[in-house]
Amino acid sequence: MQLALRTASQDRETITVPPPAVNNILDIETLKKQFLLYYRQGLERLASASVSQYPPLIQKALNYIYQNYYLDLSLSDISRHCGVSEVYFSRAFKDALGLPFTKYLNAYRVRIAAHLLRQSNDSLKKIAEESGFQSYNYFLTVFKTYMGVTPVQYREKPPDTSTD
To answer: What pLDDT does residue 1 have?
Structure first.
């Protein structure tokens, strides 16, 4: 589990699960909730890390993602914007951030969608579009994968700072 939760810090620190949390896991649903909590914390750390700590190529890519996440972005678009091959960009991005480009982009879009779900009453389709998902069904699948609940469930549950 810790391997999946590596952060983007320079020393590649891991998020550790306190032993009591592990000892109290009695069923698969509790384990799933615990995993999602730590996974989201890792993604938050990754997304909130300062862009300036990365090499210029990755800085350029991240700034482009943050400014254009709502567009239909592809690995090809980003690598072309950065002036490097797709293969080189893909390797450099994963080495710097610990996640492949598509997973990072999806995680960022899910963060945007989660914010919109809490801050607006817009339809789920509109939120999917505004957060950059070209397919509504893909949005539903990716959101549930990253957040552990559907967008409707997320919108309806009260904010909880320990899991957001």
So the answer is: 35
